[in-house]
Amino acid sequence: MLAQTLIPHALAQLYSTPFALYNAFPSLMRWIPGTHKSVEQNNQELHSFIKEIFTKQRKKLDVNDQSCFIKSFLVKQKEEKPNPELYFHDENLTSLVADLFGNVQKEIETVIGSAEPQMIHRKQMPYTDAVIHEIQRFANLVPTNVRHQTTQDITMKGFFLPKYFKKPDDFYPQHFLDSDGNFAKNEAFLPFSAGKRSCAGENLAKMELFLFFTKLLQNFTFKAPPGAKLDLTAEVGFTLRPQEHDICAIPRY
Asked: Which residue stretches, if any, does this entry annotate as coiled coil (predicted)?
């Protein structure tokens, strides 16, 4: 399992060397010694881990529950069953999930590398910025804050209220990305309230969120302890907070 956490970093190092040829000539490169062999082993371990996850999901699949990417893919796969090799097949699912695992850390490695994260990096890291925004939107940390919920476009007393988020019940960073992958603001995003109730420390909070988040993911990969089952149901109060549980922070370097 530890090897799985090292894959994004190892691949980044690999692709900056001549062994990137492995991707184009795998049958040839497997006879040549080098770092690509350990990376390929790590890659296989990750794929096995992913397949184990969606195999379990498939056994208890509910077509009416598409609350995550894997479930949605499996439902589409079931609909496409007469032609299972068209697109929604297991190999595509494995590759797509593997890509999602490494997106934020890959962007951190590409833009920041081993340097100290700074606010000037934020504009160069649209996906990381989008993930931070989506965490704030999806988590709804202060449920007693400004109330707003439009599941569809509606006109009320002459005011047009659009459906702001494409997938309000899903964790979907694309809510804050445009079609070109650039960060896109959304006026419905109000984690710091609005008007006279607006948080005075909003700018400081945004800066701290970015720096702490990138610094942590730059140095660690977080995962549940072996065999542990995490209950992500929040405890409700003035704010929502996670239940107490153990977590493993595995160094990436």
From this structure: none
